[in-house]
Design goal:
By secondary structure, this protein is α+β, with helices and mostly antiparallel strands. The protein is built from 7 helices and 13 strands. The chain has helices at residues 47-57, 71-74, 77-84, 96-100, 102-108, 180-191, 210-216, and strands spanning 13-20, 25-32, 37-41, 60-65, 87-89, 128-131, 134-140, 149-153, 158-162, 165-166, 169-170, 199-202, 208-209. A 6-stranded mixed β-sheet has the order 6-7-8-9-12-13. Strands 1-2-3-4-5 form a 5-stranded mixed β-sheet, covered by helices on one side. A two-stranded antiparallel ribbon has the order 10-11. The protein is globular.
Length: 221
Amino acid sequence: MSDASNKADVSGIQITVVPVTAFQQNCSIVWNKNSRKAAVVDPGGDVDHILAAIKELDVTVEHILLTHGHIDHIGGAADLAEGLGVKVVGPHEADRPLIDRVEEQAKQFGLGEVRKVDPDQWLVEGDVVSAGDAEFQVLHCPGHAPGHVVFYNAELKLAISGDVLFAGSIGRTDLPGGDHETLISSIKEKLLPLGDDITFLPGHGPASTFGHEKTTNPYLK
């Protein structure tokens, strides 16, 4: 880590993934082993499991970050925010219609009662958010959802990419607000140029690198 005083502390960054809901969505706790500060990304449900992980890690959650407004990523956000007394940040405001229909989404997928979350802050391209004392750039990457954002830290060579790109696949575009061409453009114009050595943690399944997906992902050929 650089000794420059204005550099974020990324030396102690850890990520703990808590799979939640029947969709096995990767809820991520991004935390710093030195300061014990943390952020929770995409608490889609199973809030008791997330709270148990936070307690076991012995970290202080500063806020919740949302990549987009689908039920499996936001379903537990309202309850978790209330339980921890923290704010909800993101996604881009273009996902407001999805978030407003969260109860409808819950019924559609048989997920039971879900409380609608009201984000305290919407994000736009170029914003910077913190997670465990590290700063992440906000990239607006629509296609899977109109307001989808990705969180990127150059020093960590890490992107938390939600449902834009997966190992061997891409996000669905047959849901409301989805568009295949827009999604491919987001991947090719926003994510791949970040570098082949950038690891990304998707919303479902294992992590991969942009370089690996560029050469092997059938949807990017």
